[in-house]
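Fold Annotation — chain and its backbone
Encoding — discrete vocabulary of local shapes
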Amino acid sequence: MEEITTHLISVNSLIWLFLVVFMIHDFEEIIFVEPWIKKNFNQIINKVPERITIILSEYSTVTSSQFAVAVFVEFVLFTVITYLAAEQGSYIFFIGFNAILLIHVFTHFAQTLYLRMYTPGVITALLIILPYSIYLFYRLIGEGIVTLREVFIYAPFGLVLIPIVLFGHKLGKKIV
């Protein structure tokens, strides 16, 4: 007897939902990053390894507006990549970006544990990104859209985000 599975959301809608999930998460970061860094910089600079203090010092003056510019740059790219996945069936970068987003959840969680305090983005990372990412990969693999092997092959394509995020932050500092 064949099992019939019905889902409340189509895969296409689930793919488009990526943009909403990303923005909800980044709204938390945009709203809280500036006041959080101002309030906690002196406390956290003493807790992190010296090599991290250089990076942290560079971002210690970031404003919410500057951070929003970086998010905007990512959002534009994510919109194109989401369109390619949802409407054209091209999943390479979509899978890569979602793999990075899933890993990003654990960096937020690790930062919170290490610093023993709230860090901007941790709440939406755990409550929104984590369940979304697990369900997205479950559905994409379960419905034969991609294989687990392809997920692992495509995941490194998400690393293209690193220079784009860095560019977005530099652009934010330059124009805001």
About this structure: The chain has a mean pLDDT of 94. The chain has one domain: 11-175. Residues 11-175 form one domain. The CA atoms of residues 30 and 67 lie 6 Å apart.
